[in-house]
Each structure stands twice: as C-alpha cells, then as structure tokens.
Specification:
Radius of gyration: 18 Å
Order of helices and strands: EHEHEHHEHEHHEHEHHEHEEEH
Distance between the termini: 32 Å
Structural class: alpha/beta
Largest sheet: 9 strands, mixed
Strand content: 15-25%
Bound molecules: beta-D-ribofuranose, calcium ion
Shape: globular
Number of strands: 11
Number of helices: 12
C-alpha cells in the first residue's frame, strides 16, 4: 500500500477512551494523511457513557467539536463487561480533569459504520482500538459489510508475545472474544497491531517530565501519570505503552512496521484461553489447509521513527 497525499484517507475511529485511546484520537486528528469522519465509542476500558464523554472532552480540548461522536455497544456480545479502570482511572482519563463540553452525540455507532461503508465501498479505513463489539454488530446486521472497508486496522491480540490480561490474552480481545472472532472471520482486510508491537513503544517518565506547557502537554501528563505510577509499582519501570496510537500508525504509514500474514482465529472459551489469538504456523500444512483466516499482523516496529512521528503530531499545534 502506498503513501497518499494529505487528507486523502477517510477513517472511522472506533474506541473505548481510555488514556491511550485519547492519544490515538490526538494522533489521528493531528495527521494530515487521515480524514476522521467520526469517532465511535464502545464499552471497554470504561463503561460506554464514560468513554463517550471522554471522546467529547478530548475533541473539545483539541478544538475539534465538529467531529461527530457515535455511541455504540454498551457491553460485549455474550459475556459480562470487564473494564480497565485500574490502568485508566475510574473516569478513564487518569488524573486529568477536562471539562465536559456542551454538545451532543450523533446517531448510533453500528448504523454509522454500516451506512458509511455501504456508501463508500473500498474507501474507508476502520481504525478499531477497543473491543471489536461495534464492528461485529455491524457485520451481523449487514453480512459482508466489513469487506467494504478499505482496511480494518485494529489494536488487539498477542501473537508471539504474552497477553496483558491473562497469560495469553490481550485486553481488547479478552473483553469481547466473540466480537474479535467474528471480525477475524469476516474476510475483511484486517491488519492487527498486537502486543508484539505495542509493547515496543512507550512514553518514558523522562519524556512525561518534558511535556510542553500547552493544554495538550498538560493533559497528556495528567492522564498518563497514574498508569505510569502503576507500572512502577508493578516493577515494569516508568513507562506507558502507546497501544492505540500504533493502530493509527498502521493507517498513516504501514512502513513503520514489519507485517506478516498469519492464519489466525480467536479462542472464545476457556478460563485460561478466552481471547487468545491462535496462529496456525504449522510447517507441514499448506495455506489452504490451515486453521483460521489470513490476518496481516504487525510483528515488529521501528519504535524510534514512530515515536518521533507521534510526538511531532500530538504536540504540533498550540493546543
Ligand atoms: C488495549 O487495552 C486497553 O486498555 C487499551 O486502551 C488498548 O486498547 C491494550 O491491551
Ligand atoms: Ca483502547
């Protein structure tokens, strides 16, 4: 896939804000390669209403209140909701205290996804950085609709890397494994940013200390601080992984990544295995005889080049 001129790639960002989701929104809106048609929200890091409010707050911070926000699924397809408030804070944006803007949301996320993909087949990239519930519900309502996306760039799963919620599962796939399976099985052109790459790119404590004295800089510092303190208590060092911005990075410029096509499926059952990506790499199998569908997986990343882009885009404006 080539690099395209400014503003030429329409995207829908589906998210569960969430601190790194907020950073993904900031990166997407700061990137001239992307035209953000709307932000969809889903239950994930925090309950749906909290995450929707957070999307509105971040857009107001950026002075981008014209971007529509579409609330979606209030919980996973089959299991009880799980949240990640121990990482993102009870309100989802760490210690930040952004004001709630006086504006309302637009229609519902699933209708927006279905209608947009139908209206512009082959044009729109879906960037999904939360549990895949909205995408799976769109596919259930309009079978085949995800194949109309130009690409689905999703943060989720772990291929050769351990999980972050269970020994084998990453949060977004664990939170709604049925949705992850349906999306992987949809036949859409999917590119994953799994933990294999997102665990390689982190904001360090020293970078946080040097945040610019702008509204954006202060927000990032306050939002990230509690998660970084948690990482230190867990003896992982002062760092905050840029999980969700990496999925935006896939849509901006895939040349940051080494991408491999892997036959993969998602386990939906099991105390130990729900949400696990099962990759069929058996040497003695022909591709036509493998378990799962071909999924493009980013398995390595030029972390330095990506971080330079991230910092320049997120802090480029006098916000
Ligand atoms: C994913 O889980 C969430 O907590 C983050 O926002 C990210 O989307 C990382 O596993
Ligand atoms: Ca997320």
């Amino acid at each position: 896939m080539g690099f395209e001129p400014s503003g030429s790639r329409p995207v829908i960002l589906d998210s569960d804000p969430g601190v790194d989701d907020a950073l993904a929104i900031m990166l997407a809106l700061g990137s001239p390669e992307l035209e953000v048609l709307g932000i969809c929200t889903v239950s994930g890091n925090v309950p749906l209403d909290t995450g929707t409010g957070n999307a509105l707050k971040v857009l107001a911070l950026l002075g981008r209140n014209e971007i529509p926000v579409y609330p979606g699924a209030g919980g996973p397809i089959r299991k009880e909701a799980v949240y990640a408030t121990e990482v993102h804070g009870p309100e989802g944006l760490g210690d930040s205290a952004l004001p709630m803007p006086c504006r309302s949301t637009s229609g519902d996320a699933v209708s927006f996804i279905v209608e947009t993909l139908r209206a512009r087949p082959g044009e729109v990239t879906l960037i999904a950085v939360g549990p895949l519930t909205n995408l799976a519900l769109a596919e259930a309502r309009a079978p085949g609709v995800l194949k109309k996306a130009r690409e689905v760039c999703a943060m989720g799963g772990a291929v050769d890397e351990p999980g972050n919620v269970t020994p084998v599962a990453e949060f977004n796939f664990f939170a709604d494994p049925d949705a992850a399976r349906r999306v992987v099985r949809s036949g859409a052109k999917i590119t994953l940013a799994p933990l294999d790459v997102t665990h390689r790119v982190a904001l360090e404590g020293s970078q946080l200390a040097r945040m610019p004295a702008t509204h954006a800089g202060r927000f990032v510092k306050e939002a990230v601080r509690p998660a970084m303190e948690l990482a230190m208590r867990l003896q992982a060092g002062p760092r905050f992984f840029l999980h969700d911005p990496l999925a935006v990075g896939l849509a901006i410029d895939p040349s940051f990544f080494r991408i491999e096509t892997v036959f993969a499926d998602v386990e939906t059952e099991g105390d130990l295995t729900a949400g696990q990506v099962v990759a069929d790499r058996r040497a003695f199998r022909a591709d036509g005889d493998r378990t799962g569908l071909p999924v493009r997986c980013a398995l390595d990343v030029d972390a330095g080049r990506f971080m330079a882009l991230f910092l320049s885009r997120v802090f480029s404006e006098a916000v």
